Fold this protein.
Amino acid sequence: MSGGRCTCAKSHQGVTRAVAEPRNVVQCVYSSPDNEELAERYDQWAESYEDDLDRDFGWSGPLLAVEVFTKYVAKNARILDAGAGTGLVGTLLADQGYTDLVAMDLSAGMLEEARKKSAYREFHQMVMGERLDFPTSSFDAVVSVGVLTVGHAPPSSLDELVRVTKPGGHIVYTLRPDLYEDGGFKEKHAELGANGMWELVVVSEPTQILPKGEPDVLHQVWVFAVTS
Ligand SMILES: C[S@@+](CC[C@H](N)C(=O)[O-])C[C@H]1O[C@@H](n2cnc3c(N)ncnc32)[C@H](O)[C@@H]1O
């Protein structure tokens, strides 16, 4: 998303209070100065996240990614939803017959919302960009929607997503074309390819996934197969 002036306010207890207007809440999370603040902002937003994004942005990232994901990943796969948020992706995957889903997110508040859904078997609070507390080759597939983006998880997160995915498994994630070019993702994709860690399977055409709120901001779904 496009960043911009943050309109989050600090309450007198020092807790971040996101203002009521959803566009500002979105700008607010994308301009968080650090992960601690980002987690607080998502904690504050968690309860109204789904309604706000649906009503004001037409958020269709989860649907787009799941449509691609189901073409490559078997129904019995053990799947990590990295940056699971309130569980929109897991809910769609469960509807498609996937049963072995693990939710991971920076924000305890978002994970609390995800817990209310019956889609996931496990919930883990972790930070992408740091070492993930999962053994190597834990998952058959990883999905990550709206997380490797402005002010959120950095390109280096992909190293750990590769490590926790079994050889032959898939990583499916959404990314803005401008961040691919200018945000270090192009270089990280190439590095992982050159080091024999993964191979590109497919990348979708740039698509609007926030058609109401940010029609000019496009995203692509990238699918990689982990090779070692
Ligand atoms: C835009 S929301 C997307 C949530 C969900 N995937 C969806 O499609 O609705 C971004 C999520 O990523 C989480 N997040 C941001 N940076 C993260 C990081 N470095 N590590 C783990 N989760 C992160 C946020 O807490 C938030 O739940």
The radius of gyration is 17 Å. The CA atoms of residues 23 and 213 lie 7 Å apart.
